Amino acid sequence: MAGQLESVPAVEIDPDGTFKYILVRVQRAGGAEHRDVVRGTAAAEFHNHIFEKVNPEMEKLGFECKCLGGGKIDHNSKDKKMRVFGLSTGYGKADHAVAVEILKKVYQDYEITWSDDKK
C-alpha cells in the first residue's frame, strides 16, 4: 500500500506565476498511512476548485483526501525562487512550513520562503 501512496506526486503546481495552492492529505481509505501533497494552479478562481479536481483523481486510485488548508505560491522559475503566503477563506491557512518542506524536495535548487503575509 505504501508504494502506491508514494506514487502520488508530492507536488503539482504551475511552472510560473502567482496562484492559489492547497495542502492535501492523501491516505488509503480506512488506512493510517498518509502523505501530504501540494497542488496549485492559476486556473483555480477559488481554492475549492483545486480540491474538486484532485479529490476525484485520488478517489479513482482508492485514496481519500482531506484539504489541510491553502494559500498562494509566487513561483519565479527564471530566478528559481518561490514564496508561499496567504490563506484560503474556505479552508483556512495551510501550514506553509510543511508546504515549503514538500516543495523543497521537488525544487531542490530553488530558494523557497514562506510568510503569513496576505500579499
TrEMBL record:
One Pfam family name from the record? Ocnus
Annotated organism of origin: Mauremys mutica
**Family statement:** Belongs to the janus family.
Q: Which domain of life is it from?
A: Eukaryota
What GO terms are given for molecular function?
protein histidine phosphatase activity
The identity of this protein, by name, is 14 kDa phosphohistidine phosphatase
* UniProt cross-references to PANTHER family, sorted A to Z: 14 KDA PHOSPHOHISTIDINE PHOSPHATASE (PTHR12258:SF11), JANUS-A/JANUS-B (PTHR12258)
Task: Kindly list the positions annotated as binding substrate.
Answer: K20
In the Enzyme Commission scheme, what number(s) does this protein have? 3.9.1.3
Sorted alphabetically, the Gene Ontology cellular component annotations on this record are: cytosol
Q: Which sites are catalytic?
A: H47 (proton acceptor)
Report the catalytic activity.
N(tele)-phospho-L-histidyl-[protein] + H2O = L-histidyl-[protein] + phosphate; N(pros)-phospho-L-histidyl-[protein] + H2O = L-histidyl-[protein] + phosphate
Q: What is the lineage of its organism?
A: Eukaryota, Metazoa, Chordata, Craniata, Vertebrata
Protein purpose: Exhibits phosphohistidine phosphatase activity.
Q: Which residues form the signal peptide?
A: none
